[in-house]
Amino acid sequence: MSDSTGISKRLAEFLQEEFPRSYHPENLTRLQGDASNRHYFRYREKDQTFILAVYPDQFDSENFTYRQVHDLLLEIALPVPRIITLDPERGIVLQEDLGDESLQLRLLKADATQRRRLLSSAIDHIVVIQGEGTKAVGSETQASRLAFDQEKLNWELLFFRRHYLEDHRRLNPVDENQLGAEFDRLSAELAGLPRCLCHRDFQVRNLMIKDNTLYITDFQDARQGPFCYDLVSLLKDSIELEEEEVEGFQNYYLDKGLFPDQPRDFRRQFQLMSIQRLLKALGTYGYQIAVSGNDIYRQYVPGSLQRAAVSLQSIPEFPYIQSIIENELEF
Question: Measured between alpha carbons, how far is 301 from 146 in angstroms, rounded to an integer?
Fold first, then answer.
């Protein structure tokens, strides 16, 4: 798909049309991507910069999930990067450049007070998504139709088995009967919980800071799921927090009054969701390392194992999963 300058043909054609007077290949920089199949670029025009997301294929603008969720989040007054142009035939989105400072990077420099303020602001966004977003999402959209049902949750657990245990760690065979039974119990309980609209990947790498505003990105996979889902993503993915801090932020969330069950139910649901979410994350890291050859994700494995172990120790019903994770920590 790339031409002799290293720029894809469709991307070059798009930029020549969008910036006919200023287009030059040297103004385009490829950015480090995420674990998706999209490619990201920054284009500079004089004193302005823009971000381009290049999808593997063309998309239908009428049913384009990224645009649907983008517009929904704008409707409920949450900050998202402005879409400037869509080119469905070339599979390109031109959007506002939010810069390079993620919440993850800001937290590395923050003191305890700043950290509380930043993460509390992120939780405020979650509450708006769950409350206003759940009411506003259109029934015809993917975000309304898709859900973390048992099939989806179990598929993600099997993704962990295949790509972390087998592809990355070569831990084959495992006891498929024991592991499958525990996967089934975990996914069944989570699938039976009350649902709301979830961002689906509300982690610190997907929250960007520009002009002291906390922006939400990477929201195209929004769907229905447990109330604890996005909070687990925020507090357990790609972040190192003391358990006392995690408990404090859970209390902050519960004080918003949106959770439909008793607080003690939330504690269990949070730990169950942490187990499932972290196993899925380990599966993604295993896939990126072993299959895609993307070693940058190796740095996230030890922390994810440790956080999964903490949650498994608090929920005694999954001894086989716990033994696997604890053995991995000893490796």
Answer: 28
Closest alpha carbon to 284 in 158, 200, 186: 158
Give the contacts of 14 (CB within 8 A, at least 6 positions apart).
52, 87, 90, 92, 94
Handedness of CA 264, 266, 268, 271 (dihedral sign): negative
* pLDDT tens digits along 206-265: 999 999 999 999 999 999 999 999 999 999 998 999 999 999 999 999 999 999 989 999
Per-residue DSSP letter, 287: I
- If asked whether residues 201 and 68 sit together in one domain, one would say no
How confident is the model over 286-316, as pLDDT tens digits?
Answer: 999 999 999 999 999 999 999 999 999 999 9
- DSSP 8-state secondary structure symbol assigned to residue 102: B
Mean pLDDT, the chain, integer: 94
Range of the domain at 80: 9-96
Q: What is the CATH number of the domain that holds 244?
A: 3.90.1200.10
- Phi/psi region, residue 228 (left: phi>0; alpha: psi -120 to 50; beta: rest), is alpha
Rg, Å, the chain Cα set: 21
pLDDT digits (tens, 9 = 90+) for 262-278: 999 999 999 999 999 99
- Give me the number of domains the chain comprises: 2
Residue 111 domain-assigned (yes or no): yes
Residues 154 and 63 in one domain: no
78 in a structural domain: yes
The count of other CB atoms within 10 Å of the CB of residue 95 is: 19
Report CA-CA distances (Å) from 116 to 123, 246, 251, 290, 307.
Answer: 10, 11, 12, 36, 20
Whether residues 72 and 122 share a domain: the answer is no
